[in-house]
Design brief:
Length: 574
């Protein structure tokens, strides 16, 4: 498809087709240039996407930077040599599944450059990948320059982490970043590092790849809601969402107490944006721009009202493909050496050119690559579309090991009450003694201490906090890693404690016992009795989540799972 464009009169005898932006256009379909009295370009016009590419690449680089920063800060404790779910053990299990081979079958099952690295120090490997990703993404973010090599490196590095991250990297935005990043590879020239590579116009096929991505993200999210939980149909889901979402922020505390009619309006608006607005993409330039504006506004509202990691920031990225240079020009200064001036010059040259630009081999190769990309995305979209149309729709699923085209969705069901697992320790020799004092461990962001204000961290992400949110819906037998965490806390493991906000035994001997307690949490009423006492939450104990455990109780458990045994505290006498 070609973008809509303004037209200007063509010189007589010049109605020959020529190449502009990688697609055939006649002069009548070229972007027109309004001119001031001095016959110089006055403003950007429709139909080109030079500035769009810069904005897309920088936005994508920002998301990569955040993702690699999270990986650098947390992966060693989560999937490192002595992490909760060691990635070396995971790769060994994959090897064993394929009869000890690291051949094609193992690579396609878990595509990661970890297969090529020395496994004797996985912490070094994880840091190396994260630091390389931080370096490359910083360069693209600051300069706005990228090529296919750099963008491929970012994609391969992050895929290498996701595919060994197990449940720590199992959330939907991981695949969404990989799909977005894969499309980002084809935005750029092969070698050139220039913000405006004049010989490589932004491909319409790649732009439609981004538009197809945002269409599937939003429509998938809308369909899974109306199919998954009746509260989306009776318009009551927002009565619960702010309180029960994974990691509420302070604004959610107040939004939860909005009038009932406001919650109904929110739910209807959600259905409008997710089920109807996506089709605006196919209704011409103006409706595409309206689609982009509405989707970005919707994501900004979600960012303000919750801590959903970089998910909403990431969802803004493909929405940017709805805007051409004329729509995004206001983001760029108008100085004589500015990017806007350079794009105006490119538009002027393309408009005045009568003869088509000569095709070189690189241009032909580029066309073949872009067409191949379109065919690949179309082919991989078949099971995704079938899933969208199915009454048994599944969300956040990949149908290929490279996660190039995936299914998406969010909050297909909304929990109606919030439960939390609170980890507690005691130095008492007898865990059952009435005088045993149990002290709470506090996580970085998830609810714990009722007096602690909810955090505001988006786009950053605390992976362990999210795992604890999911664990509260299930049992510890379904989340074996939580007993691994308990063992590490009993040993005073510094890596595990770095994932927490408060260690009640800081500077003291680690606890003799650890237990998990199950609590029900509700927001306090603003201005009410509990709120005036400084409480943000009201909690009530449900019962035990797992029983009191000592380090020696877990040794056999660790051994059968091949987890590294935590070293017992040297100052602790049992």
């Amino acid at each position: 498809m070609r973008p809509d464009s303004l037209v200007m009169a063509a010189p007589e005898g010049s109605l020959r087709k020529r190449k502009v932006g990688g697609a055939e256009h006649s002069p009548a379909s070229q972007p027109s240039l309004a001119r001031d009295p001095a016959d110089s370009p006055a403003r950007l016009h429709t139909g080109t996407f030079w500035l769009t590419r810069i904005v897309l690449l920088r936005a994508l680089a920002f998301i990569y930077f955040v993702a690699f920063l999270v990986a650098f800060n947390q992966n060693k404790a989560l999937i490192g040599d002595r992490g909760l779910l060691p990635c070396k053990l995971y790769l060994k299990n994959v090897q064993e599944y394929f009869q000890g081979s690291t051949g094609w079958a193992a690579w396609t099952y878990a595509p990661t450059i970890m297969w090529l690295l020395d496994w004797s120090d996985m912490n070094f490997n994880l840091d190396l990948i994260a630091l390389l990703g931080l370096g490359i993404s910083s360069f693209v973010l600051v300069t706005g320059c990228a090529n296919m090599i750099l963008m491929t490196a970012l994609w391969a590095l992050y895929m290498s982490l996701v595919n060994v991250g197990q449940i720590c990297h199992s959330l939907g935005w991981e695949s969404q970043l990989l799909e977005t990043g894969f499309l980002g590879i084809f935005l750029s020239p092969l070698w050139t590092l220039s913000r405006l590579p004049k010989n490589t116009p932004t491909s319409q096929i790649v732009l439609w790849g981004f538009r197809w991505l945002i269409f599937r993200i939003m429509l998938g999210a809308g369909l899974i809601k109306v199919r998954g939980d009746k509260c989306w149909l009776d318009l009551t889901c927002m009565d619960f969402h702010y309180e029960t979402q994974p990691v509420p922020n302070p604004i959610a505390y107040y939004l939860h107490r909005s009038p009932w009619w406001f919650h109904r309006f929110e739910t209807l608006s959600n259905h409008f944006v997710e089920l109807l607005v996506p089709f605006f993409l196919f209704l011409g330039r103006r409706m595409r721009i309206l689609h982009g504006v509405l989707q970005i506004l919707f994501q900004v509202i979600l960012i303000i009202s919750g801590n959903l990691s970089f998910l909403n920031w990431l969802t803004i990225v493909p929405s940017l493909a709805c805007f051409d240079d004329a729509a995004l020009g206001f983001l760029f200064p108008s100085g004589p050496q500015g990017l806007k001036k350079q794009v105006l010059e490119i538009q002027r040259e393309d408009t005045q050119r009568v003869q088509p630009k000569p095709r070189d081999r690189g241009c032909l190769v580029r066309q073949v690559v872009n067409i191949s990309l379109g065919i690949l995305v179309a082919w991989l979209s078949v099971p995704v579309v079938i899933n969208l149309l199915s009454s048994r729709q599944i969300m956040n699923t990949s149908f290929n090991p490279l996660r190039i085209v995936n299914t998406y969705g969010a909050f297909g069901s909304v929990t109606k009450e919030r439960t939390e697992v609170i980890l507690q320790g005691t130095v008492s020799p007898n865990a059952s003694a009435p005088d045993a004092v149990w002290e709470d461990y506090e996580f970085k962001c998830k609810p714990g201490d009722p007096w602690r204000q909810p955090c505001l961290i988006s786009p950053y992400h605390y992976r362990l906090d999210w795992l604890m949110w999911f664990a509260a819906f299930q049992t510890y037998e379904q989340n074996e890693w939580i007993l691994h965490l308990a063992g590490k806390l009993l040993a005073g493991d510094s890596e595990a404690l770095a994932l927490l906000a408060v260690n009640p035994f800081e500077g003291r001997t680690p606890p003799r016992w650890i237990r998990g307690e199950h609590y029900r949490y509700k927001f306090s009423l603003p201005g009410g009795q509990h709120a005036t006492q400084g409480k943000w939450w009201i909690r009530k104990r449900i019962g035990p989540y797992f029983p009191p455990l000592r380090l020696e109780d877990l040794k056999e458990y660790f051994k059968t799972r091949e987890w590294p045994l935590p070293e017992p505290p040297s100052r602790h006498t049992r």
